[in-house]
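hiii so um. not sure if this is the right channel but i have a protein structure encoded as tokens and i wanna go backwards to a sequence. like what aa goes where. can anyone help
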């Protein structure tokens, strides 16, 4: 009796294969800056000047907004960032406990001009904010290679004005 050889069939990928991370890293939720007393005094003085200017111009709503913004900035300036687990799989990007499937993402871009090292994901819904992630110490080319098969890459040379301003005033 001769043994017949079965034709080679490729193994079907298991559902676990598509969920397995292609790339994973940990990064801080936001950049933590050292803020001394001078920073807090400067923030309070600026806030008081803005409120006073709005009151002189009889802009009551603007005065209230400036007062509230000053309070929020000074109150949250001392917050410590969480460490986020970030992973890229064949299905999407997971950030901590939030999953972004590729079907809900439009494009990505990487800004890598140390100390600025960020991955930005643009969602398909125009009213949802961008997802900005720190690359920490991971190789940006590895991130680019993991994403380019699933998302279009958008060319960006530098960070936005608001990001530059936030970094400059250490927010």
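sure thing!! here u go:
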């Amino acid at each position: 009796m001769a043994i017949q050889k079965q034709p080679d069939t490729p193994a079907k990928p298991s559902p676990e294969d598509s969920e397995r991370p292609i790339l994973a890293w940990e990064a801080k939720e936001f950049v933590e800056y050292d803020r001394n007393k001078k920073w807090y005094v400067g923030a309070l003085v600026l806030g008081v000047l803005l409120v006073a200017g709005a009151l002189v111009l009889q802009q009551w709503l603007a005065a209230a907004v400036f007062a509230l913004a000053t309070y929020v900035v000074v109150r949250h300036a001392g917050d410590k960032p969480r460490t986020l687990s970030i992973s890229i799989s064949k299905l999407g990007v997971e950030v901590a406990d939030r999953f972004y499937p590729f079907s809900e993402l439009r494009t990505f871009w990487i800004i890598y001009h140390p100390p600025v090292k960020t991955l930005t994901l643009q969602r398909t819904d125009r009213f949802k904010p961008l997802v900005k992630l720190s690359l920490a110490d991971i190789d940006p080319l590895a991130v680019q290679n993991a994403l380019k098969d699933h998302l279009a890459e958008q060319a960006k040379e530098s960070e936005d004005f608001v990001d530059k301003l936030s970094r400059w005033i250490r927010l």
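oh and Residues 92 and 116 are 24 Å apart (CA to CA).
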